[in-house]
Amino acid sequence: MTAYRLVVISAGLSKPSSTRLLADRLTDATVRQLTAEGREVDVQVVELRDLATDIAHNFVTGFPGPALREAIEAVGRADGLIAVTPIFAASYSGLFKSFFDVIDPDTLTGKPVLIAATGGTARHSLALEHAVRPLFSYLRSVVVPTSVYAATDDWGTTGDRLTDGLPGRIDRAAGELAGLLAGRAPSGPAGGGAAQEEAVVPFEQQLAALRV
User: Fold this and answer.
1) Would you list the DSSP string of 140-197?
2) Backbone phi, psi, residue 70, to 5°
3) Does the keyword Cytoplasm apply (predicted)?
4) DSSP H or E run through 134
């Protein structure tokens, strides 16, 4: 059975970081739900803190270094993405945005993406909806309905009768991503997600169809 390729983008700056911790929990939940259905998953984690210098050089030179090129190619081959950023000044981090700025805009077209973020206070939770989700919508990704925000106080909470705690939100978002992946054929070992060539319909034939 061909395994699904899941790429996890973590933009945490410290080591260890709550951003990476949230990314790991989302990854574990997604893999668990897919393997429960008998599906195999290959996971690759991209730590953006390790690529910060390469990303800056890419903006200046126009060419990615080997490590950045490998990360970009991994995103292109991926069947699905988990993208997690810390929230700074009510938006995604500059490092997170810069990574997606150096990727060809068509790379993420139609690709399932689970978005998540961490921050010190719950007041920044809507940054996922007014900043992160529009970014991936612009890139024409298929973003799962549930975004996951983890404030400092969320770790270890179980929620109440009206709201889910962090574990519940993680499981729900992971289930949505797993469902999208399960509806797609894995990209396969050779490839990587390369789109099949579209059949070209001659212009005269298109005009004839309009006259019918």
Assistant:
1) T-EE-S--EEEEGGGTT--B-SSSB-HHHHHHHHHHHHHHHHHTS---TTTT--PPPP
2) -65, -40
3) no
4) helix 133-138
Which residue's structure tokens are 């990727």? Answer: 103
Over the stretch 87-124, which tens digit does the pLDDT of each residue have?
998 899 999 999 999 999 999 999 999 999 999 888 88
Identify residue 34 by its one-letter amino acid code. L
Rounded percentage of the chain residues whose pLDDT exceeds 90: 70
Residue 113, beta-bridge partner list: 81, 143
From the candidate CATH numbers 3.40.50.360, 3.30.870.10, 1.10.10.60, 3.10.20.90, the one assigned to the domain spanning 4-211: 3.40.50.360
State CA 2 to chain mean position distance. 21
CA distance 50 to 52: 6
pLDDT digits (tens, 9 = 90+) for 139-170: 999 999 999 999 988 876 665 544 578 999 99
